[in-house]
Design brief:
By secondary structure, the chain is α/β, with parallel strands linked by helices. It has 6 helices and 7 strands. The chain has one domain: Rossmann fold, CATH 3.40.50. The strands form 2 sheets. A 5-stranded mixed β-sheet has the order 1-3-4-6-5. Strands 2-7 form a two-stranded antiparallel sheet. Helix 3 packs across helix 4.
Length: 220
């Protein structure tokens, strides 16, 4: 990965919070490096805020749903490439920036080539009955914990991906090191690394725009 300064530069570029434990940051960067290294040359990296804005623009074109954005985004709809322009989309701790996950996945589907691949490294929520409890607790904690402030966590990302018409061809669920303490990192313990491809139209009713938007995100 290079020296400490290089690691810090990449972490800052990906907007990984300063409050994240060092071991967590290193694991994310190492796994992301392997994803990028295996990817095609022409890729869309959602670690770049401009790429996330492009996904929101594409989602608006694909669905007509009112476009929401991160603080500081340009209020003008940008130029969007033709559908299917990217053979590879990389998301390493990037889906957490989207308040409306189904809508973001519609934008990704719009931009991804029909035979392309979506590579994800993302925190995920607890499965089963614990999901709603942990999601509610995390939403409350995110208002004042620096490590998760403004992030959208405790979501069933694999289920959302499948509902939006993707097939997950490979998935690894794992627990991040040393995130049991401090407590601010607790919502970041469970992660997945997965590869998905477009398989069909999204499930009716799964729909983009159905998720509530967070107060941190302003309307464009």
């Amino acid at each position: 990965m290079g020296g400490t300064s290089d690691t810090a530069t990449v972490a800052a570029a990906l907007e990984l919070p300063d409050a994240w434990p060092a071991e967590l940051v290193m694991t994310v960067l190492e796994r992301r490096h392997s994803l990028v290294g295996d990817a095609a040359r022409q890729l869309l990296d959602l670690g770049d805020p401009a790429s996330r804005a492009l996904v929101r623009d594409a989602a608006f074109l694909a669905t007509g749903v009112v476009r929401l954005g991160e603080p500081g985004e340009d209020a003008v709809l940008g130029a969007v490439p033709q559908p299917g322009s990217f053979p590879t989309v990389i998301s390493a701790a990037a889906l957490v920036h989207f308040a409306d996950l189904p809508l973001a996945l519609r934008g990704i589907s719009y931009l991804l080539h029909p035979e392309g691949e979506l590579h994800m490294l993302e925190p995920i929520g607890q499965p089963g009955a614990l999901h709603l409890l942990t999601a509610s607790a995390t939403a409350g904690l995110s208002r004042w914990m620096p490590g998760i402030r403004g992030l959208h966590l405790a979501r069933d990302v694999p289920a959302a991906v499948r509902a939006e018409g993707f097939t997950i061809s490979a998935i690894e669920r794992f627990t991040m090191p040393t995130t049991a303490w401090p407590p601010t990192a607790w919502p970041l313990r469970r992660w997945m690394q997965a590869t998905a491809t477009i398989s069909r139209a999204p499930i009716a009713g799964s729909s983009a725009g159905s998720s509530a938007s967070s107060p941190e995100e302003g309307q464009r």
